[in-house]
Amino acid sequence: MYDDRTNLTRQVADDLREFFRDEVFRTVIPRSIRLAEAPSHGKPILTYDVRSRGAESYIKLAKEILSHDQAARKPAPSAG
After folding, report:
1. Positive or negative, the Cα torsion across 55, 58, 62, 63?
2. Series of mean pLDDT values for 10-residue runs along the chain (80 residues)
3. What is the value of pTM for the model shown?
């Protein structure tokens, strides 16, 4: 989970993006109390608090993964 308040977190994220480039998703999951509370209530974040920043980030990540998967499955243009 990403905590944008710390220099270390930002530096690690920058290093990962520099080294892995396009293999790193753009969406980050922020550190959040609501995300930490959900498991103790036996619920995933999407049912515990769907409007939380963490839930919205997971939804955004899922959309990014699906978009990436669709782009990877797109056939290459044929030479003709």
Report:
1. positive
2. 90 95 94 95 97 96 94 74
3. 0.81
